[in-house]
Amino acid sequence: MPELPEVETIVRSLRNEIIKERISAVYCSDKKMRVIAAEEFKQRAKDKVIEKIERRAKYILIFLTGNEVLVFHLGMSGRLLLTTKMSQEKHNHCIIELASRQFLTFYDPRRFGFYTILKQDDLAQNKIFSNLGVEPLSNEFTNHYLQQCIKTKKLIKQTIMDSKLIVGVGNIYANEALYMADILPFRPSHTLTVAECEKLIASIVAVLNKAIELGGSTLRDYRSSDGRIGRFQHKFLVYNRKHCPNCSNLIKNTRIGGRSSYYCGKCQN
Ligand SMILES: [Zn+2]
């Protein structure tokens, strides 16, 4: 499933390629992947110019002239691919043709993703965005903020993965960050010390930045907008590992909230 680093990788590469491009045509499949009618989507996007591209949580936001913004969520297996030929894949749900004869294609075989168009002015109030927590790579993600989040008996791994508190810390990165911070994933959140919170913040930021630098992680489906796979999956310290890289003990695996949770019982407390 594409997580924050994968989505950020796509956003950064698209930003280099399609800013100031004009949308010359829009094609939509008849699959229910939109929250608005295809005709309205096409009519509002066509002939607009791409002004900027941003990421919020795991949403890709393509800001257009005319106060419009395209919103894409990749779900489990979605891709947003930029090509110079129009692709004819069965699972293409939306193709945006640019005046330069490039094609931005939203492809999603498992169909957990979606796309839509919103007014920029309505973005903050829209129900998609109004309940999202802070961005972990922003200045808002401070120790003071994390102190507020951990006033709960919920397990720390669930707290850092709760998108109402902190967005985009998916399962892989939560495992890695907790390992790097020497904190067991099933510690009740309120037992973390201020120093541990400091270390956890630094670890979350470090693991996300490292993953972005390596183009994200590809476990199954993920591809960047140019079709490349990520490389961070070769750098996992604890996720899906057999032995702890620090002490060589066996890595243990349990389920927390239904998600695989890997840890070293010796190095993490
Ligand atoms: Zn260890």
TrEMBL record:
EC numbers for this chain: 3.2.2.23, 4.2.99.18
Family: Belongs to the FPG family.
Pfam family, one: H2TH
Gene: nei
Subunit composition and interactions: Monomer.
Name listed for the protein in its UniProt record: Formamidopyrimidine-DNA glycosylase
Reaction equation(s) it catalyzes: 2'-deoxyribonucleotide-(2'-deoxyribose 5'-phosphate)-2'-deoxyribonucleotide-DNA = a 3'-end 2'-deoxyribonucleotide-(2,3-dehydro-2,3-deoxyribose 5'-phosphate)-DNA + a 5'-end 5'-phospho-2'-deoxyribonucleoside-DNA + H(+); Hydrolysis of DNA containing ring-opened 7-methylguanine residues, releasing 2,6-diamino-4-hydroxy-5-(N-methyl)formamidopyrimidine
Domain Formamidopyrimidine-DNA glycosylase catalytic: 2-113
Signal peptide coordinates: none
Metal-binding keyword on record: yes
Cofactor(s), names only, from the UniProt record: Zn(2+)
Highest taxon, organism lineage: Bacteria
Transmembrane feature ranges: none
FPG-type domain location: 237-269
Annotated PANTHER family: FORMAMIDOPYRIMIDINE-DNA GLYCOSYLASE (PTHR22993:SF9)
PROSITE patterns: FPG_CAT, ZF_FPG_1, ZF_FPG_2
GO MF annotations, alphabetized: 8-oxo-7,8-dihydroguanine DNA N-glycosylase activity; class I DNA-(apurinic or apyrimidinic site) endonuclease activity; damaged DNA binding; zinc ion binding
SUPFAM superfamilies the UniProt entry points to: Glucocorticoid receptor-like (DNA-binding domain), N-terminal domain of MutM-like DNA repair proteins, S13-like H2TH domain
GO BP: base-excision repair
Key words of the record: DNA damage, DNA repair, DNA-binding, Glycosidase, Hydrolase, Lyase, Metal-binding, Multifunctional enzyme, Zinc, Zinc-finger
